[in-house]
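Build the 3D complex.
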Amino acid sequence: MSAHIVSGFDEDLEVLRSSIAEMGGISEKMLADAVTALVRRDEVLAQRVINADNRLDALQRQVEEQAIMTIARRQPLAVDLRDVVSAIRISGDLERIGDLAKNCAKRTLAIAGGFQPPRIVTGVQSMADLVLEQLKDVLDAYAQRDLERALDVWRRDDQIDALYTSLFRELLTYMMEDPRNISFCAHLLFYGKNVERIGDHTTNIAETVHYLVTGQTLTAERPKDDGTSQARIEVDAATGK
Amino acid sequence: MSAHIVSGFDEDLEVLRSSIAEMGGISEKMLADAVTALVRRDEVLAQRVINADNRLDALQRQVEEQAIMTIARRQPLAVDLRDVVSAIRISGDLERIGDLAKNCAKRTLAIAGGFQPPRIVTGVQSMADLVLEQLKDVLDAYAQRDLERALDVWRRDDQIDALYTSLFRELLTYMMEDPRNISFCAHLLFYGKNVERIGDHTTNIAETVHYLVTGQTLTAERPKDDGTSQARIEVDAATGK
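Done.
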């Protein structure tokens, strides 16, 4: 009887893990496609990113329902309970990552026809590439229960924040240089902020992997602070520079 | 024995509900204070909002842990299970609302010393007042299991989105009028976006109340779409208007 229960639990867990793996694949692809759509000004691809989000939402609801049923039916303890709780948390973060990638794609549609010097997009692109790498690494860390790899992701979050702070200043400078840049750059500010928040969710996932493997909550202060919420650029009113 | 279990469940539920009530009170106050801090340029109050967020985070972790233990120990069914799942979801939304209010307060600190015509703040303030009303209403709807009131909140979300779209255009216009407004208005764009997202979380809570009372997921398309992600303001390069 006990063996039967254990086996039922393992099957439940396998289903949860495979749903999370599917969610991870979709969210990675959404982010990668959202960046390509921006760089190539590809509206069809942007629309595809927007459409992909439904599947992610459905999977998240499925993981949540199935996890709760598993807790009620199997009453797992210790690492088994952490496994199920981690699945709920990670599916929540991946669903949010999908929302944010979808919002990036919407911004791409908003600016598709406008005036847009390619150099302005470069900063967003490098930041997004770094975040995509973080997302891949943290999903591998989860799949392999690799604590060290998760901690690497967690530590690197400040690089993303530094890139975002410099992007914020750069975009404000472009706005001041030429009012034709303002609308375009305002959308890119939000695009960049979305990417930075995707980075925050990869850090959340790294924290969940830490909790899953060790049973402890990471107590150290997260190495992140969005510097731009305190950033200010002083301008000379006459020149706008 | 059965009565004992039921009574244990009711006690668990009571603890969950009182934690949610506390979280609701804190998040309402954080949003109200964040708006006052912006309008009065009150840096001390802004800092107080930032500090209040820790308590909200702690309560959210506590609700999540306690809810999971309740599901494992009591194996609730039907409406009882929905009650516990709703507590998890609502505490998640309230925790996010706290994060967003905290971010608003950080933006207030960022722009505290700069050049800022008071009329520019007015649009943000009206929007925040409406969102605060929505938040109060949805917390009452949850406390009283009032489906109609929850649906009212749910339907009004498009008003917030309309206000945000007009705020977005207004702020871009101020930026184009005078480059000295650019940095200040960029922060206000994010401030407004945070408030709009607080509105989204009140809508989430309304959907959770619907699920709690009826057992059904709201399938109608949410009456919301952030129009600004597709907004564009055409400017004449010479005048910047």
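Chain B touches chain A through 43 residues (CB under 8 Å).
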